UniProtKB/TrEMBL annotation, chain A:
The lineage of its organism: Bacteria, Pseudomonadati, Bacteroidota, Cytophagia, Cytophagales. This is DUF5777 domain-containing protein. It holds the Pfam family DUF5777. Residues 44-289 form the DUF5777 domain. Residues 1-21 form the signal peptide. Keywords: Signal. The keyword Signal applies. It comes from the Bacteria.
UniProtKB/TrEMBL annotation, chain B:
Residues 55-176 form the Lipid/polyisoprenoid-binding YceI-like domain. Residues 1-20 form the signal peptide. SUPFAM superfamilies: YceI-like. This is Polyisoprenoid-binding protein YceI. It holds the Pfam family YceI. Transmembrane segments: none annotated.
Length: 302, 184
C-alpha cells in the first residue's frame, strides 16, 4: 500500500521535473523580466494643456519652439472679422536640461511682457509591481511687464513690474484616452495692475484631455481664482480646444476668454466673459527639435 | 522501502534540474537596433534590455523585449513610436520563438553561420520567419547576431501619409545577444 503511494509520488515528481525542463523558454523570459515599474508616458501631448502648463516637460537636450496666438473677441463683429484683425502673440523657447527639468523664456506682446520659467517633474506615474498613481511637477515663473504705464505720471520700480507664479501640477492618465490634472496656483504681484486688486492671488486649475484618435484630442481647462471681495473686472479663465499632432508638431486650436498666454495674464487678468461672448479664437504651435548628438547611429557598426 | 525513497526522489529531481540548467544560456541585456532609412530622414533606435534564452541541447531559442525599452535620440519620436505606431500599451512586447539550425559545436570555439526558424511577433501580429545570422562560441558565452528586415505591413503597423517625419515601409533590424550560462 505504502509502496504504491510512494510510487505515485515519485512519478509525480518525475513528471514535474520533466515539465520543468520543458518549460517554455518565452515564459521563462517573462518571469525574468523586470516588471517593477513602467513609467506612464504621454499624459498630455504638449507642455501646455491649453494656456496652463501640463505635467509634461521638454525632454533632455530638446528645444521646443512655441508660437501662440490669441485673436480678438468673436463678439467684435464682422467689421473686425470676428477678432481676426487683432492678435495677441507669445513666442517662446523652452529647453530640457534633463528629462525632468526644463527652462524657458518667452515674450508676449500683451504688456510687452517677458517670462522666465522652470518646471521640474518630481514624480512620474507608473504601472507594474510598484505603482505610483499620479505624476507631479513643480512650476515656477517670473514675468516682467516692460510696457510703459498708460496712467500719466505713474512710475513703477523694477520689482513693481514683476509677477511671480508657483504651481503644483498633479495629473493622472486614467486610460489611454483620458488624462486629468489639478493645478493649485499661487500668483504674487507686488503691485497689481489695478489698485483695487490683491497682490497675492490663490487659484486652482483643473484640466484634462480626451483622445478622439491617436493624433487628435479634445482639451479643456478652467482656473478658479480666490479673489474674495476685490473689486476687479476680471473673470475666471476657461478654455476648450483640440490638439492635433503631426509628427514633430503639435497644433493646439482653442477658444478661450483670455487674451494672454502666461499665468500673470490668464489667471490674474482675464477680462473676457464667456457669458457675454468675449471669446478669443487662438492656437499654439509647438515644434520640438532634438539637439541630442547623433552618435548612436554611427556606433552601430556590427 | 521508506528509507531510500526520499533519496531516490531527490536524486531524480536534482538530475532533472541539473540537466535543465546546464543547457540553457541567456541574457537580459541584449541589444536590438532598428533603422528606418528614407531619402528625407534616417531614424534609429536601440533596445539594450532585450532578453534571449537558448537551449543548446535542443536548439530552441526565445527572444523577448519591451517596446518601451527602445530609446530614440529624439524623444518625441520615441513617444510616437509607442503611442501611435506600436501601441505599446496594447502590445507591450516583441518576441521570437524558434529553433537554431544547424546545431553548432557548442564545445568548440568558433563562428558558425546559422538560421533561426520560428515565429516573430510584433504589434500583436505573428509571422513565420527564417532569420539568418551568426552564432559565436567563446569561453563560457554564446553570442548570437542577426540582421533582417521587417515590413511594416506584415505586422499591421500603420503610418499615415500626412506625417512630417518620413518612415520607411521596411525596417532593418540588427540584434546582438551575448548569452551566458543561465542561473535561475
Amino acid at each position: 500500500m505504502a509502496a504504491s503511494k510512494y510510487l505515485g509520488l515519485a512519478a509525480g515528481v518525475l513528471f514535474s521535473a520533466a515539465a520543468l525542463a520543458q518549460t517554455d523558454l518565452l515564459d521563462e523570459l517573462e518571469q525574468q523580466a523586470d516588471t517593477a515599474a513602467t513609467p506612464v508616458v504621454a499624459t498630455f501631448k504638449s507642455t501646455r494643456i491649453i494656456n496652463g502648463h501640463s505635467v509634461e516637460t521638454v525632454q533632455r537636450h530638446h528645444l521646443d519652439f512655441r508660437i501662440s496666438h490669441r485673436f480678438g473677441r468673436l463678439n467684435s463683429g464682422a467689421y473686425e472679422l470676428f477678432g481676426l484683425d487683432q492678435a495677441s502673440l507669445r513666442l517662446g523657447f523652452e529647453y530640457g536640461l534633463s528629462d525632468k527639468l526644463m527652462i524657458g523664456v518667452g515674450r508676449s506682446n500683451e504688456q510687452k511682457a517677458y517670462d522666465f520659467l522652470a518646471k521640474y517633474r518630481v514624480l512620474t506615474q507608473t504601472t507594474g509591481a510598484r505603482q505610483v498613481p499620479v505624476s507631479v511637477a513643480l512650476f515656477g515663473s517670473a514675468v516682467i511687464r516692460t510696457q510703459r504705464s498708460f496712467i500719466p505720471g505713474e512710475e513703477r520700480t523694477f520689482s513693481e513690474k514683476l509677477t511671480y507664479c508657483g504651481q503644483v501640477l498633479v495629473a493622472r492618465k486614467f486610460s489611454e484616452r483620458l488624462s486629468l490634472q489639478v493645478t493649485p496656483t499661487y500668483l504674487y504681484r507686488q503691485r497689481p495692475e489695478l489698485a483695487t486688486d490683491v497682490p497675492a492671488l490663490w487659484a486652482v486649475g483643473a484640466g484634462g484631455r480626451m483622445k478622439l484618435s491617436k493624433r487628435v484630442s479634445v482639451n479643456a481647462e478652467y482656473f478658479w481664482t480666490a479673489r474674495g471681495s476685490a473689486q476687479v473686472p476680471y473673470y475666471n479663465a476657461l478654455a476648450v480646444g483640440v490638439d492635433i499632432e503631426t509628427g514633430g508638431h503639435v497644433f493646439q486650436l482653442h477658444f478661450t476668454n483670455s487674451r494672454g498666454m502666461v499665468e500673470k495674464h490668464f489667471i490674474g487678468e482675464t477680462t473676457g466673459s464667456w457669458g457675454k461672448g468675449d471669446v478669443h479664437y487662438g492656437f499654439n504651435i509647438s515644434r520640438v527639435f532634438s539637439l541630442e548628438k547623433k552618435t548612436k547611429r554611427a556606433s552601430a557598426s556590427w | 522501502m521508506k528509507s531510500y525513497l526520499p533519496g531516490l526522489l531527490a536524486l531524480v529531481f536534482l538530475t532533472g534540474a541539473a540537466t535543465a540548467q546546464s543547457t540553457l544560456y541567456a541574457t537580459n541585456s541584449g541589444e536590438t537596433r532598428f533603422f528606418s532609412e528614407t531619402p528625407a530622414e534616417n531614424i534609429s533606435a536601440v533596445n539594450a534590455k532585450s532578453q534571449a534564452i537558448l537551449n543548446t541541447a535542443t536548439g530552441e531559442l526565445a527572444v523577448r523585449m519591451n517596446m518601451r525599452d527602445f530609446t530614440f535620440p529624439n524623444k518625441l519620436m520615441q513617444e510616437h513610436f509607442n503611442e501611435n505606431y506600436m501601441e505599446s500599451d496594447k502590445y507591450p512586447t516583441a518576441t521570437f520563438r524558434g529553433k537554431v539550425e544547424p546545431a553548432p559545436h557548442y564545445t568548440q570555439k568558433g563562428t558558425y553561420a546559422v538560421t533561426a526558424k520560428g515565429t516573430f511577433t510584433v504589434h500583436g501580429q505573428s509571422q513565420e520567419r527564417t532569420l539568418s545570422g551568426q552564432l559565436i562560441v567563446t569561453d563560457g558565452t554564446i553570442e548570437l547576431q542577426t540582421n533582417f528586415d521587417v515590413a511594416l505591413a506584415d505586422h499591421k503597423i500603420e503610418v499615415p501619409k500626412i506625417v512630417f517625419v518620413k518612415i520607411a515601409q521596411v525596417i532593418n533590424v540588427k540584434a546582438r545577444y551575448v548569452l551566458k550560462p543561465y542561473k535561475k
